[in-house]
Amino acid sequence: MKEPPKITEQLEGTPVRLTRHSPGYWQVTFDAPPLNLFGPELLTGLEEVVRRMQASPELRVIVFDSALQDFFIAHFDVARGGEIVSRKTTSGILPVFDVAVALYESPVISIAAIRGRTRGVGIEFAAACDIRFASDKAIFGQFEVAVGTIPGGGSMEFLPLLVGRARALEIIVGGEDLGAGIAERYGLINRMITDDKLDEFVHNFALRISQFDQVITGKAKALVNERASRPQLAHMYESRAAYVQTASRPERKPIIEKLRSWGFQQDSDFEYNVGDYLNRIGENNDLPLQ
């Protein structure tokens, strides 16, 4: 099908790039090298995307992807987490949840196109999208429990709905890195696609949806939402409180020190292979491992 000219805009002060392929099809690209940490600027970009999405009645489909080959969203930016947790929202819930709820309730179909590593809040954001496609080289991990805290950005709410209770426990409590094949089998993603075909597949899928009547696509999503289980706001409040409480425990300090010695939040081997390092998280904290 013939494609109209696209318009690309870097959202001011954020690592978020918005491409309008047409009035009905937008693409949102995260570009915060080296890791695409989920920090205040990325959140600001997402909040602006949501604001524009809600004011665009012709929009039918929006794709979220990454400009980085190795990272979709690495994880929460712990060094600046206070700036996010303390941010006020009209709903009173954590801003990450505010974005997630907006995506869920919008008639727009949201698609995560996942390449590289996505852990922690990266999984939580992807899980909040309606549809998830991933490269066969993608890696997923929920490592909070292994480092002394509780996921507080949506995994407690979304993962049981996507993969079931037992597999949600395996992902959250086990803290292992999972390849795209397992993620597809578990239902964490809709489909695994070879890395060289991911962009083309997602683009064509979104372009296809963008041609349909937005009244019908929105109604179809609303009906599916009514028939499916949905995350509860009360549970989101509880998860936020559990994260804040566990993250501030004094017992967590030596774990954080170990993570820093391994290269946490740096362009390091640790960030590429978190699951392998967590096999050694219980070893002597006085002896940093290289």
Describe this structure in words.
By secondary structure, the protein is an alpha/beta fold. It has one domain (7-215): 2-enoyl-CoA Hydratase, Chain A, domain 1 (Alpha-Beta Complex). The protein is built from 13 helices and 11 strands. It has helices spanning 40-54, 81-85, 95-105, 121-128, 155-163, 165-174, 180-186, 198-210, 214-227, 233-247, 253-262, 269-272, 274-278, and strands at 7-10, 16-22, 25-30, 61-66, 71-73, 109-114, 117-119, 131-135, 139-141, 177-179, 191-193. The strands form 2 sheets. The protein has a 7-stranded mixed sheet, with helices on both faces. It has a 4-stranded mixed sheet with strand order 5-7-9-10. The termini are far apart.
Write the layout of secondary structure elements.
Elements: E1 7-10, E2 16-22, E3 25-30, H1 40-54, E4 61-66, E5 71-73, H2 81-85, H3 95-105, E6 109-114, E7 117-119, H4 121-128, E8 131-135, E9 139-141, H5 155-163, H6 165-174, E10 177-179, H7 180-186, E11 191-193, H8 198-210, H9 214-227, H10 233-247, H11 253-262, H12 269-272, H13 274-278
Parallel strand pairs: 3-4, 4-6, 5-7, 6-8, 7-9, 8-11
Antiparallel strand pairs: 1-2, 2-3, 9-10
Helix pairs in contact: 1-3, 4-5, 5-6
Give a short summary of the structure:
This protein is of the alpha/beta class and 290 residues long. The protein has one domain (7-215): Alpha-Beta Complex (2-enoyl-CoA Hydratase, Chain A, domain 1), CATH 3.90.226.10.
